[in-house]
Amino acid sequence: MADSLRGYDYVRYFDGIAGPYGISSTTEDLFKWDQALHLNKLVTKETQDEGYITGKLTNGKAPAMGSLEYGFGWLIMPPSERGKVYMHTGGYPGYATIISRYVDRNNSVIILTNKWNTFNIYDLFRSIDDILEGKPFQIPVTEPFKKSILLDNAQTAALEGSYQFKDVPGLIVKVRVEQGKIYAQLTNQPEFEVYADSPTSLFYTVVEAKYGFTGMEGGKYNGLTLFQNGKELNALRLK
Hints:
Layout: H1 27-38, H2 45-51, E1 64-65, E2 68-70, E3 75-76, E4 85-92, E5 95-102, E6 107-113, H3 121-132, H4 153-159, E7 161-165, E8 172-178, E9 181-186, E10 191-198, E11 201-203, E12 209-217, E13 220-228, E14 231-237
Antiparallel strand pairs: 1-2, 2-3, 3-4, 4-5, 5-6, 7-8, 7-14, 8-9, 9-10, 10-11, 11-12, 12-13, 13-14
């Protein structure tokens, strides 16, 4: 298969950038669709109400995403002073989306972004929600794009190896280099390319996480620290 050999896989197959049958949309179009639902122009109110009822799975439990129960394509928010609220999120590498319909108030929040790693879409949604509720709000902080640097062969060789985390012995991260690119793979997780912002620091672009390397000995670092979600996990190189 073309581009299937590691090191020559220049093509990335992304089949979900467009919706089914190539459908795409904008916030303006989605708002028109939302208003057509509100005015019962697309389907009747009775039909819509059926979509907001949680069904049952074969195990007797309600379908859910996290703590939110699922209707027909809608996540059902818990009862609150906002009235009935139905929402859904979406995402793909580079993209993040959210729609929330406050059906009792005819308010809707629709956010589409192709800069998913420069700000948190949920923070933005919560700020807009606070504005609609007349509550104090904060403008989300926009993170600048991270810039990577190129390391020479000796610098990348110093990073290569497997590191076992002290507090989680079953968790190991393998760092390897291939044709100048650096990859990291945690136990039972996919391998991802990581990027250097210094000779002793690597960061992900798929998640907000980075590694810091310490203790150079014999041309190799003997330890690293994983920084993620405000936590630090230390690991030692396996011999």
